[in-house]
Amino acid sequence: MSDITNAYNNSSRPLKHQEELYLPPHLIELKTARNRSKKVWQRLRDPTSKNLFNRAQARFRNAMSEFNQSMYISQNEQLNIYDGTLWRRTKRLKSKRSEISPLKNPDTNLPSHTDLEKAEIIADHLESQFTPNDFGDTNTERTVEKSIREFKNAIRTSKFKKVQPSEIICFMKHIKINKAPRIDSITNKMLKNLPLKIILKLTEIFNHMLKFRHFPNC
Q: Would you say which domain of life the source belongs to (predicted)?
């Protein structure tokens, strides 16, 4: 599995802490001319240099407005229903922004004022959110344990139904790409783009698991 994550990291472009905004060459020239005229006006402080700076500023603002409009249109044209971008954009446009209410103590229902009170409320909320819930069903767990025990105690034979690559491919077609990755950091989108060589390797691993009755822990 480390090969999958290494291949993903090697083919991905690393993000900078502060990603610079891309500007086409003509906007860079207008920005440079605007900054140059601004420095001249700050040094001379005369009406002529002020007029030149205002004109350069207006040209740069108009060009930036046209550039942002073209970028917005281009982003909308790239929206599709397969990766959820169209739905997220529609939801953001239709949703109404509401004012953020003051942070209240759930016990007293009174707003908190000090930083310590706010920190305690947020800490309690995060603790309750990230505490694993017990969704186990006793009957289901007993049935699963019984099935695994019977499978392991069965006579070893090579006539079991083997896993086929088509089954793995069919399963991966139906997984959702927006799910968070597990501890191995492999996302569902990465699984959907696995090459056939890796699919065949997974098929071999699954068949050996069934053959030797060995199921590694998650």
A: Eukaryota
Task: Summarize pLDDT for 9-18 with one digit per residue, the tens.
Answer: 777 766 665 6
Where helices occur in the chain by DSSP H, the ranges are 2-11, 25-44, 47-77, 85-94, 115-129, 138-153, 165-173, 188-192, 196-212
CA–chain centroid gap for 97, Å, is: 23
Q: What is the pLDDT of residue 133?
A: 62
CA 42, CA 21: separation in Å to the nearest integer? 26
CB 164, CB 203: distance < 8 Å: yes
Query: Rounded to an integer, what distance in angstroms lies between the CA atom of residue 162 and that of residue 110?
Result: 62
Q: Is the Cβ–Cβ distance between 50 and 41 less than 8 Å?
A: yes
Give the other-Cβ count within 10 Å of 37's Cβ: 19
Q: Tally the C-alpha atoms within 13 A of residue 210's C-alpha that lie toward its C-beta.
A: 13
- pTM over 0.70? The answer is no
CB burial of residue 82 (10 Å; 0-12, 13-18, 19+): exposed
**C-alpha to C-alpha distances, 132 to 122, 149, 161, 183, nearest whole angstrom:** 18, 27, 36, 16
- Residue range 83-136, pLDDT digits in tens: 788 888 898 888 887 788 888 888 888 888 889 989 999 998 888 887 766 666
What is the DSSP secondary structure assignment for residue 104, as one 8-state letter?
B
Residue 111 forms beta bridges with which residues?
104
Instruction: Say how many Å lie between the first and final Cα of the chain, rounded.
Output: 13
